[in-house]
Design goal:
Rossmann fold; 371 residues; metal-binding; six-stranded parallel β-sheet; 11 helices; alcohol dehydrogenase (NAD+) activity; Quinone Oxidoreductase, Chain A, domain 1; alpha/beta; 18 strands
Length: 371
């Protein structure tokens, strides 16, 4: 099958729009016609570096679509099923899946190259094999996925909002609820109010936080976070230190979630200054390049105040339980998804979408493959 896709040929370039060949599904594989893809900042990081990966590569990992064909042995989905992509596959059998940590599934070892667990590279460009980012490639109209990356959803659910629960919504929501362990009465600080951060706000509110302080330099994002339940917002993490201590009656925040677009040592220092005794600092953000995300931990303070520093991959969520759970919350009016979509783009407008994101004009841009 031939399809169109947005491809990065090498670092520090923009997405190119090309025609690719998509392979037919082998055993354990699923051919999906993509409907929508979120413009996640991780695909912007991919423009700068792909540690452990390769180029060219098809961008996009947050998506939804309809199954077109399945390979032998696939039982979880069938042609015609609506699916949300899981950028972290979950096999259900490795020691991480079996112990309830499917976001660390061993089958995710090749997400940077896009090679499927079967060993297949799903695309051919000028005769050369290539993969999709996170084994997804949601910026292609058609893509070949592992069955471990396909989460079947109810057919009546809108596919546009469903695409958001592939990454940004569970990553943010889970960073507060699971990784951070927010409890009723907590004071929470969320640093960075983009597509992931606003969902950390929603997660903290759902978990019963008494105070949620949102931090972002963009006024539009602060106002939006307040509409989702943030009780106070400020433009800079330094401005959150005082309110965190005041609202916690002197101790500091119970949980600080870092969801900025670009992680750095400076961001770490500012966020950790908001943390109170016994608090948890959740690091969800990534840097453009690994060396730019290095931070210095003050061991003395961490020990004396029993701070916990917790990394968060996919918000510590399980795609096969939490994606349906979040969609049901949305159905019942308990989780905002519709207003998260700020602008919609065609495939040829992906680069413009990322320029809009960098300018602070969107909470979430959405690629609509039908445009």
């Amino acid at each position: 099958m031939r399809t169109r896709a947005a491809v990065l040929r090498e670092p520090e370039t923009e997405y190119e729009f090309v025609e690719l060949e998509v392979l037919d599904p082998d055993p354990g594989e699923v051919l999906v016609e993509m409907a929508y893809a979120g413009l996640c900042h991780s695909d912007e990081h991919l423009r700068h570096a792909n540690p452990g990966g390769r180029y060219p590569i098809v961008g996009g990992h947050e998506g939804s679509g309809v199954v077109q064909a399945v390979g032998a042995g696939v039982t979880g989905v069938a042609p015609g099923d609506h699916v949300v992509t899981s950028f972290l596959p979950a096999c259900g059998h490795c020691r991480f899946c079996a112990s309830g940590r499917s976001n660390l599934c061993d089958k995710g070892a090749t997400i940077a190259t896009g090679q499927l667990p079967t060993g297949t590279f799903p695309y051919r460009l000028d005769g050369e094999p290539l993969g999709g980012f996170c084994m997804i490639g949601a910026f292609a109209r058609h893509t070949l996925l592992s069955e471990f990356s396909c989460v079947r959803i109810d057919p009546w659910l809108p596919l546009d909002t469903a695409a958001l629960v592939a990454c940004s919504v569970p990553t943010g929501w889970g960073s507060a609820v699971y990784s951070g362990g927010v409890r009723p009465g907590d004071t929470v600080v969320v640093v960075g109010l983009g597509g992931v951060g606003v969902n950390a706000v929603q997660g903290a509110v759902h978990a019963g936080a008494m105070h949620v302080i949102g931090v972002d330099p963009v006024a539009m994002k602060r106002e939006f976070a307040e509409s989702l339940g943030a009780t106070r917002t400020v433009a800079d993490a330094g401005e959150a230190v005082g309110p965190a201590r005041e609202l916690s009656r002197g101790t500091g925040a119970d949980v600080v979630v870092v969801t900025v677009g670009k992680m750095s040592g400076e961001v770490y220092r500012a966020a950790s200054a908001c943390l109170g005794k016994g608090g948890t600092l959740v690091l969800t953000a990534l840097a453009d390049r690994p060396e730019e995300g290095r931070a210095v931990l003050n061991g003395q303070v961490t020990t004396v105040f029993e701070h916990r520093v917790q990394g968060a991959m996919f918000g510590s969520c399980n795609p096969f339980t939490d994606i349906p759970r979040l969609l049901r919350l949305h159905e019942e009016g308990r989780l905002e998804l519709d207003r998260l979509i700020t602008r919609r783009y065609s495939l040829d407008e992906v680069n413009q979408g990322y320029r809009d994101q960098a300018a602070g004009e969107t909470v979430r841009g959405l690629l609509d493959h039908s445009r």
